[in-house]
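User: Show me a protein chain along with its predicted structure.
Assistant: Here is one chain, sequence first, then C-alpha cells.
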Amino acid sequence: MLKVAAVTLSLLLSAAISGALRAQAPSDVFTRFESGKPGQGTVKITQDVNIRNLVNLHASQQRKMNGIKGYRICIYLGSGQEANKKADQERAKFISRYEDVKSYKRFEYPYFKVYVGDFRTKSEALRFLKKIERNYSDEAFIREDIIAFPD
C-alpha cells in the first residue's frame, strides 16, 4: 500500500512540474519567435549563439527591473500635512483630462509626487509636456524612470 502511494505521489508531482514548466513563457526570446502558431507563418532565426545569449541576458535583466528605462513627467510635488490629499486631487484632475495616459502617485521622502506617462524617449516626453503645459506650466518637469513595459 505504501509503495502504491509513493508511486501515485511521484506521478502527481511530475505532472504538476511538467504543467508548471509548460505554463511559463520560454526564457529564450528567439524560441518564442520561432514557435509557430496555427494559421501563421514560421520564422527561422540563424545567428551566433553568443548573440542569442546576450539578447536573452538583456531580456532577463529587463524583467528583473520590472520595466525598462524611460521617462515620466512629474506634474505635482509637495510636502506637508495636506500633500498626500493634494497629490490625490492632482492625479484625479489629470486622469479626468487624459484618461488614456497612465499616472502614478509616489512618496519619495519628504515629498508626495505625481508622475504621468510611460515614455520610451525624451522627445516623446517633451511632446506630451508641450501638450499639457497650459495646465502644468511651472510645475511639470521630465525625469528618467523605470517605466512599464509597452503593451
